[in-house]
Amino acid sequence: MGVDTGYSANAPSSTYPYSASGPSYQSSYPAYPGRVQGSFHAPIDLTEDSNETGGKSAPGKRKAVGDHSNAGLAKPSRKRKAGPVDESEESPPKKKAAEPKDGEKRLRVFRKRAPQAYAEIRHRALTQRMIIIDRERISPPADIDPTSPDNHPTETVSLAGTTGNIYRITISRVPSCDCPHAKKGNQCKHVIYVLHRVLRVREDLEYQLAFLSSELREIFSKAPPLPSEVAKKNTDDGEMDGNRKSLEGEDCPVCMEEFETDGKGKPKRGEDVVYCKAACGNNIHKECFKQWTVAKKGQGHVTCPFCRSPWQDNEETRSMDLKSLAKAGPVNAEGYVNVARQLGLSGRRDYSTYNEFWMRNRMGDDR
Q1: Which conformational region is residue 364 in: left (phi greater than 0), alpha (psi within -120 to 50 degrees), or beta?
Q2: Residue 261 in 3-state DSSP?
Q3: Which CATH architecture has domain 239-327?
Q4: pTM of the shown model
Q5: Where are the alpha helices (DSSP H) in the chain?
Q6: Separation in Å, CA 128 to CA 161, 162, 189, 350
Q7: For the chain, which ranges sit under pLDDT 50?
Q8: How many degrees, rounded to 5, is the angle at CA 37 between CA 32 and CA 38?
Q9: Tens of pLDDT along 266-303?
Q10: Which of 99, 107, 213 is nearest to 151 (CA)?
Q11: Are the CB atoms for 193 and 159 separated by under 8 Å?
Q12: Rounded to whole angstroms, what are the CA distances from 38 to 13, 42, 62?
């Protein structure tokens, strides 16, 4: 026997929460197309991809089970499928370093800028005393192939260094020197001195370790002429000092033979003649004057065979002696001909511009 509560399960009630199936239920939320009627929170299908074709779902929303509007569509592929390789298609060629038009290769690596070590050696070359003894330039054969890498002049310079040792510097495709520093594979100050002081090459070539034949042709075409070429040109042009006497009808005071002239009182081509610049202006055969110089060296100084005045052109006389000495002089313990006494040099090496750390390791504290 039950108690009458007045409640009927089938009768609508205003106090019980509304049923979604009841006639008086009105939802305050809009109906969604994929939602099953009568279910406020539909179950979620976690097996479907949220990035299906046809558009991406809004952030934070998931599709309901009842939404099958995009079913059956293929998913887009994010990876590009590799197609068949066309072997006939050639890949672009790799770029190579620019080479000279004639195909010539530099024998040493090209320097884009001067290294710091070069600056130190260059400073020594331009601040220390060095003397040019002789220069000899060799031109290429006349019948050489114009495109040959050997089609360039070559110059050999005999130079007295700071100690008086005579070194031979050769300016060719790879400049070289026979000094101890260069023999160790270094760029020495003697080569730099010749390039800068003697040949006066442009700055970007001065610190290179090797030259192309075209660069060598440019260097020697713009270089100052050899002293022997200048003297020969002056003789050919008939240039004479105003103090110099005419050679016409005159005899050499040493060999007593008449000078060969061109008919105008000037030396004939091939006739080497020197003259007294200090006083009288008389002429002497150059070879005869060499013998006169040797005979007078025992007296301490050279004089004019005519007026007995001290010979002013001591530089020319010294140059002739040094050239002969450089080729056939006695060799010292280091293996070089030394002319320090003839040039008035101390014979001691100048270390004033050397690195202090190197000096301590090389010479010790009691240097």
Answers
A1: left
A2: strand
A3: 2-Layer Sandwich (3.30)
A4: 0.53
A5: 116-127, 180-183, 189-193, 203-206, 213-222, 227-237, 286-296, 314-328, 340-343, 356-363
A6: 9, 7, 10, 8
A7: 15-16, 20, 53-55, 96-97, 365-367
A8: 120
A9: 777 777 888 888 777 888 888 888 877 776 665 567 77
A10: 213
A11: yes
A12: 19, 9, 19
User: Which single residue is written with the structure tokens 């040099």?
Assistant: 345
pLDDT of 249: 78
Q: Tell me the CA distances in angstroms from 190 to 196, 201, 223, one per residue in order.
A: 10, 14, 17
Closest CA to 337 of 163, 126, 201: 163
Residue 119 is predicted with a pLDDT of: 92
Q: Which residue(s) pair with 128 in the sheet?
A: none
Supply 239's token pair: 């240039």
Please state, in angstroms and rounded to a whole number, the distance separating the CA atoms of residues 353 and 120: 8
> What is the pLDDT, as a whole number, of residue 365?
45
Calculate the CA 212 to chain-centre distance: 12
Q: What residue spans in the chain does CATH classification 3.30.40.10 cover?
A: 239-327
Q: 149, 160 in Cβ contact below 8 A?
A: no
Q: Strand pairing of 283-285 and 273-275? A: antiparallel
Tell me phi and psi for residue 87, to 5 degrees.
-70, -20
DSSP 141-207: PTTS-TTSTT-S-EEEEEEE-TTSBEEEEEESSS-EE-SHHHHTT---HHHHHIIIIIS---HHHHT
Q: Which residues are CB-neighbours of 114 under 8 A, at least 6 positions away?
A: 122, 206, 207
**Quick one: DSSP state of residue 264?**
S
CA dihedral sign, ordered 341, 344, 348, 354: negative
CA distance 22 to 32: 19
Per the CB < 8 A criterion, the answer to whether 205 and 219 are in contact is yes
The letter for the amino acid at 104 is: E
CA distances from 27 to 18, 19, 126, 362 (A): 10, 10, 102, 102
How many other CB atoms sit within 10 Å of the CB of residue 187?
20
CA 281 to chain centre: 51
